[in-house]
Predict the structure.
Amino acid sequence: MTMTMSMKGEGVRRRAPALAVVSLATWSLAACSPGSEDEGADENSGEAIGFEVPDFNPGADEVSGTVWHVAVAGDDAAGDGSEASPWASVSRALEAVAPGDGVAIHVGTYSERVAITVSGEAERYISIYAAGDGEVVFDGAGVDLDEGEVGQWVRGLVHVHDAGYVRISGLRIIHSSDNAIAASLAHHVVIEGCETYDSVSSGLGIWSSSDITAEDNAIELACNDGGQECISVAGSSLRVALVGNEVFNGGPGSQGGEGIDIKGGGETSTAESGLPQGPREVYVVGNRVHDINRGCLYADAWDADVGPVVFANNEVYDCDGAGMAAAGESGGHLHDVVFANNLVYRSLDRPEGFGSSGVVFAYNWGSATATLSRIAAVHNTFYNMRWACGRLDADALVADATAQLVFEDNLCVNADGPVFASDDNDNEDLALTSFDRLGHNLLWFIDPEDATGYYAGEVFVGPDSVVADPAFLGALAGTLDAESFQLGASSPAAGAGVTAAEAPALDFAGVTRADPPSIGAFEAQ
């Protein structure tokens, strides 16, 4: 079953943009097929990455049992949990819930940690949701997150730990001294329509958990000023869908703070490769990530085995760092990662110069070289990257002629810099050796006078590429949005891509790809 953008359920408030979540064609790179618990680490399975976003939590939005009520004016001692006589805390309600029950939290501001350690059952989820009109706010100012000892390495103001079949919907969580929302050693959890604001660490942290759906959440001012990332998926997490979320206005970025990071670290099991088992079967689809003081979308193996991961149909802009990146900061193995149909524009100009590319392979941030296998960036649109649209940090990459890296069918309109670059010209041979396909891209410059000398040689553009103005249909002055980058039928990008069998079946807007397809995130119309 394909998950849709609008899971139903009382208490869901939609703040994140309704970006299209599309069913994408199977990519042709050899990889493991998501779908079973023991798959994901075998890189030689010969099957293909599936782009469809599965519904990991069918029936999560149904409340079939008792609805328990919580209100600011309630009483934990004298109340009975009914609407007429509510309790004062969610903690009290969680003492009473059974599979299929709901906890309806009425309008107001609550000062408590919600530690969820009880489980529902398949299609009989425990639902914790905002009831009625108005905001339900959990304010972490002054709340001790050590109380109850729930979550040793990550602590959330709202936290699901060692429990499953739980739905959290429509809550606003502010001023947490660690994570705003966290799931650790959890399974079958839905987090939807929630807002987080001003968390010292992640707005949402998912650690060594499985079958997690985070949809239509708004994550603002996360990592202020702590470690981790605005949304972190880490440990041995399995089958995670991040869909239609908005991540924005990140913290200062001095200790952490990337937008969305799928990363090794904190694992609880070992992969077949012998490395610690990192996240696998992760879908990052239809999110909007912007105004972040570090990179926006990141897959980092760290010292673990991480993959497959899909980043598709995301809108990324105003990031003080790379729009997208693939790495292994501490010598791990990142494999079977696809960046497809993403729109990345207006990256900021970091003083170091290297961070402002559209997509970077093998960031050299860590203490050891990374192994990357089957990493593909296809059908993305990059605008005003301040440096290259694609970049290989060759010093951080284990030289491997079988790496099967792909940079193809990407549309690049830059203020400066090439379509693709290594960290220095001495590594151009490594770039060509590591990339199975590096071509069919389009390059143009915001000021064509800047183009002189930047598109000579296959390492910068690749074979069968186009150097021409893509003739975007939208206005590129003033406020930019996704519609600014759509293409007309007369665009030189139209029909200039590879065959449809190697392209996502639908574009950023959900339009069927032509055969041959257009270069970039949008199919020409």
Summary: The chain is about 0% helix and 30% strand. The first helix runs from residue 90 to 94. Helices lie at 90-94, 428-434.
